[in-house]
């Protein structure tokens, strides 16, 4: 059961706060997680917007002009436009025009039409509308990869905060243990003094040792409380309200075994291959390169001459006039066509835009190459750090065991009157220092192990099971 409370609420009972529970809260409710979700939703809406450029459109208009009692014209029209992927647009509509001052090129009465507009050169193979849709798709993929990167960093920062808290807890427990040990030792010395077996100065020395470890315990308690406050910065509830970790919460025992499944997956060649294949940072660059490639295609199309052909069948008999079986059907007599040609003579703007697009692509390729090298080096460093710290933890563990044997032997000699408090204290101090060093090494080893999936960009997928 998680021990959390909102400001102003009563504290709950002691409980275990595991790394799994902590990560579940961070992944579910942290505002940064929700912000990345919003960005992904925005990318989806941009894609929907780009798809809207291919939606059929229904246009309608009505106008009437009368002056000094003379009706110049009355006009009504409705048109359906159906765009297609290849730049071709199909159009169908109906017009009504009547009046005394209409243009002689216009047709009075009711006129129906159905036709097609085709770009012969520019915009036939590719155009801005198709590019916008494909770029929106790539942008959506980029948003997913950006989300992975942000969450990967968030989880790593959160785990640093968690294991700083764990380290502070372990140091506090060690200080508590040493304080209790020296309190019992002082009581034993006082009793020996009362029995006339020890000098009064021995009781003073024993008391100073108790004071020393009490000061150390208070210092570690303050650090534990401080780290708990830092840890609370990552705790939020479903209503996006900040939570505060209860001061009585404590880490789960055997935390040093979290993430051990990664210990058997540190094959450098396979990890480097995974970086190339899956890392969100490199995948993001792949999608960005696709966007820039599409931009190049658009810029190339901009250099082509524009030649648009518009052809329409006309009918004054409604839809029946477009039926080949209808007696009045005559595509040669009842039709309209137009051709529009446009071409800049020097193509200065088009050539410059195309070359700029190519340069942007080449620049992004170089960025991706540098990013790839950076990520590969991070993986190599993470693996090397873990292997080094793994060995250090093993050596420090054995070192602590040997120091404890010496300290225990010195304690026995002290009880037999064959040793002094000075030697016993010296042995104990070495044990305390070595144990603190061991705890710090274990935490560093834990974080170096987690830095491997972090360097691969997949820390959000790692389950910290012990």
Folded structure, characterized:
It is a single chain. The chain is α+β, with helices and mostly antiparallel strands and 466 residues long. 58% of the residues lie in helices and 15% in strands. It contains 8 helices and 10 strands. A 6-stranded antiparallel sheet has the order 3-4-5-6-9-10, with no helix packed on it. It has a two-stranded antiparallel sheet with strand order 1-7. Strands 2-8 form a two-stranded parallel ribbon. α1 runs parallel beside α2 and α3 packs antiparallel against α8 (421-456). 26% of the residues are buried.
Give a quick precis of the structure:
The chain is α+β, with helices and mostly antiparallel strands and 466 residues long. The chain has helices at 19-29, 31-51, 128-194, 200-232, 268-278, 280-303, 348-415, 421-456, and strands at residues 4-5, 15-16, 57-67, 70-83, 89-98, 109-119, 244-245, 249-250, 306-315, 335-342.
- Biggest sheet details: 6 strands, antiparallel
Globally, the shape reads elongated
- What share of the residues lie within helices? 55-70%
User: What's the CATH superfamily of the domain at 156-233 and 254-280 and 356-461, by name?
Assistant: Outer membrane efflux proteins (OEP)
Which strands sit side by side, in order, in the main sheet?
Answer: 3-4-5-6-9-10
Q: What's the architecture of the domain at 156-233 and 254-280 and 356-461, going by CATH? A: Up-down Bundle
User: What share of the residues does DSSP label as strand, in percent?
Assistant: 15-25%
Distance between the termini: 18 Å
CATH T-level fold name of the domain at 156-233 and 254-280 and 356-461 = Outer membrane efflux proteins (OEP)
Please write the string of helix (H) and strand (E) elements.
EEHHEEEEHHEEHHEEHH
| Assembly state of the chains shown | single chain
Name of the top-level CATH class of the domain at 156-233 and 254-280 and 356-461? Mainly Alpha
Uncertain residue segments: 1-13
